[in-house]
């Protein structure tokens, strides 16, 4: 497939391949940047909250410069193609939410994908999967922003950036954990997974 979108070509090089979720992340980011009128000369800083953990995240990181590492990207894996882009200084925000729609070859694709995952796919199946992905990507680009997304401008308090934290040792599993992420259970600090484990147990038996 010939990629006519320059941003998508660069993002696919960064991500490793092109796929529908990557296109959605690319389109959502560009729409948000255009809506917020954010350009290279702006003194604003941007923060993004994404409600899924798909390939779209790589597109958002590339398009906006908001990454998990610089903590301007927050990921809440709720399985939704919903993204909140916030200008931190002016406290303006835009929510971009994917509309319900179905690519005509979607059901066939997921049947073939399941065969591939179960190591039952033939070479013909693999070629068909790639063909369907190319068609899916082209279809997504054929849709207008209005057809693809619900968009709402709003105001929002931007998420704070966590500063570097000291590490403490979890009293249960002995792993190191940032003290800001540790929880106090019965007077001792434990990491989040251990706190969930211990909450299922009773009193002192949890420490045996």
Question: What does this 3D model show about the protein?
Answer:
The protein is α+β, with helices and mostly antiparallel strands and 208 residues long. The protein is 38% helix and 19% strand. The protein contains 7 helices and 9 strands. The protein has helices at residues 6-15, 20-36, 56-64, 106-117, 123-142, 145-148, 192-199, and strands at 46-50, 73-75, 82-87, 92-98, 149-155, 167-169, 176-178, 183-185, 188-190. It has a 5-stranded mixed beta sheet. Strands 6-7 form a two-stranded antiparallel sheet. Strand 8 and strand 9 form a beta hairpin. Helix 1 (6-15) crosses helix 3 (56-64) and helix 4 (106-117) runs antiparallel to helix 5 (123-142). The longest helix has 20 residues, at 123-142. It starts with 5 loop residues before the first helix and ends in a 9-residue tail after the last helix. The model is unreliable at 202-208 (pLDDT under 50).
List key phrases describing it.
alpha+beta, five-stranded mixed beta sheet, 7 helices, 19% strand, globular
